[in-house]
Amino acid sequence: MDSQNRWKTGQTGIEENILAVSPxxxxxxxxxxAIALVGWNIGVTILSPLNALLFINFVPVTTLLVSIFxxxxxxxxxxxxxxxxxVSLLSNNIFVRMLQRIGSKQPVQTHLRERAS
Length: 117
Known about the structure:
single chain
């Protein structure tokens, strides 16, 4: 019987924990989940899907900036990764603009179906 009583007290503890954490869970679901998703969709419509896909690679750089403001230690690898991300985004942007300026008759392939046919 003692093990059954422990189970009941453990169950009550779990229910209390769930009730205590539920406002925090609702906050995490509503704000980062729903609002960020709507904001991302609006950004995709403004930028175009190809540019939005490129700028999702900028998320680690933003995380690095936040960690700098929080006073965390930055390593050489952090700086190297940030440099590579920025260089790759800039080089892709320059490449696409060069293709647009040249007025090439072959458009940049953005869909997998275009590559297959």
